[in-house]
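Researcher: Here's a chain I'd like modeled. Treat it as a single chain, no partners, no ligands.
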Amino acid sequence: MYPRSFVLGILGILLLAAFCCIPLCTSPSSSDGGEGAGPSETQEEAWVEPTTPSVTYNPAGPKPVRLIFIHHSTGENWLTDDNGDLGKTLMQNNYYVSDTNYGWGPSYGPDNTPIGDMTDIGQYWAWFRSPQAPAIMDRVYREDAKNSPYTRFDNSPGGENEIIMIKSCFPNSALQGNANDPVPAIADNPLKGEGSGSEFHTVANAKGIYLDLLEYFKTRPDKLFIIVTAPPLSDGKYANNARAFNEWLTNDYLNGYSGKNVYVYDFYNVMTSNGGSSTINDAGREGGNHHRIVNGRVQHKVESGMMGIKNTAAYASGWDDDHPTSAGSQKATTEFVPYLNYVYAQWKAGK
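Model: Modeled as a single isolated chain. Structure tokens:
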């Protein structure tokens, strides 16, 4: 027989070990997002904070530049850690990033739609030119929240957002009409406030919307506006129109604009070539379609191969899903961030 004290000691050790094991042996609940998670009605809308810890910027160093990105799902994927990594990469380049998403902001129109739900080309008229635009943009400039899962600095540098990025999603590449149709005056433009599913979502009307936005942009030379073109579709029905429109937006839109505070980044073009498949990108390659900085200069390259210029999605996530894969989003990050650094420096220098 063992002494009673010895037996009690062994029992105590076993009980302590069992207690410590409990958290490790418990099946993950739905809130954990583990393999044991059951379906959830809100699962598609939920997002999880990145595992990479936030970083506190050095107050003694250069003050981070405040940037806000107005977007929907493709923009969210682009920002997200371990997907497009844009948010984290911008932080590493000393930007303090905030963003809007579905459900954000003041209500608009008779249906009281959250303005964050409205990011189609025609709907940007509501943000910048409608009677409610002053209140909407005041909120945009002050916004410092995250609405997507990405890593950023823990503490805000204060002040207003200095860079405003806007992007529409891939349905906006289904531009109807003829590429060379005349642009209507804004008073007669039926696309104002309308979504991409409208019969009025045409090349000419979309041009008219963007031209009218310049009337607002020129009133805010203290802000840098970055227009990010909508990504391409896999369906080729309107692909030539999408290419023509984005070539115009990138190369001709700012002709005659006296301000120096607007730039267009051709995300559409970047998403039309890959490294052999939708899961391999061609960032850093000489060939392919790009919008990037090469040897200190902006390169906007549209390559024509044996089959002509590719105008459809090169990074579609599936046969029925035109959201870019992480490979595509990471190509965009690789090319966009140096581009942003370049144009921000140009703007600050008044060039």
